[in-house]
Amino acid sequence: MSRTKTNRQPSMGDVAAAVGVSKTTISRYLHGNFGYRGVSGVSRWLADWGNDAHNH
């Protein structure tokens, strides 16, 4: 995820919207609470995003 037009780093809300989960799910992921269903989706999305970033 690149910086936005206002030249700021993406917020948890920006990431949540891109992944399609809540800000709470992003917070749980960042704090290592992986026991929630949405967190596995975040992990997959970040892995895919990282692979895409390395392929460009």
TrEMBL record:
GO terms for molecular function: DNA binding. Residues 12-37 form the HTH lacI-type domain. InterPro entries: HTH_LacI (IPR000843), Lambda_DNA-bd_dom_sf (IPR010982). Pfam families: LacI. Gene3D superfamilies: lambda repressor-like DNA-binding domains. One of its GO terms (biological process) is regulation of DNA-templated transcription. It comes from the Bacteria. This is LacI family KDG operon repressor. The lineage of its organism: Bacteria, Bacillati, Actinomycetota, Actinomycetes, Bifidobacteriales.
